Amino acid sequence: MKKLRIVLLSSLFCINGLSLAHAASFSCDKAKTSTEKTICQNRSLNDADVKMATTYNIVVHALPMGGRDAEKGAQYQWLKQRDSCRANVSCITQRYTERQKHLDDIVQNRILTQGPF
């Protein structure tokens, strides 16, 4: 249990470094919406996308089954909200900030304290 916590914490602390080396969590070559194109063209949005996607993947893999399904549904709804921003950088930034806080809260309050183990 302690080793899993260390791995999760290490993964979260490395997210910022990883985001500098990687592109958005989706293929910018295949970006179709104005929101996706804006994310690909804006470095801070690109980094926020990578960080959020990494945290989301950690959450989905660490939560028990019922929590996974709920979080996948929440992610789908969040994507719709994010995409409604179109090319508005401040709106997209706000959506990422809100979603990242939600995911960070899950990691802190549900995974690290209770865990699926």
UniProtKB/TrEMBL annotation:
Pfam families: LprI. GO terms for cellular component: extracellular region. It comes from the Bacteria. This is Lysozyme inhibitor LprI family protein. It comes from Acinetobacter ursingii. Keywords: Signal. InterPro entries: LprI-like_N, Lysozyme_Inhibitor_LprI, UCP037256. Residues 28-101 form the Lysozyme inhibitor LprI-like N-terminal domain. Residues 1-23 form the signal peptide.
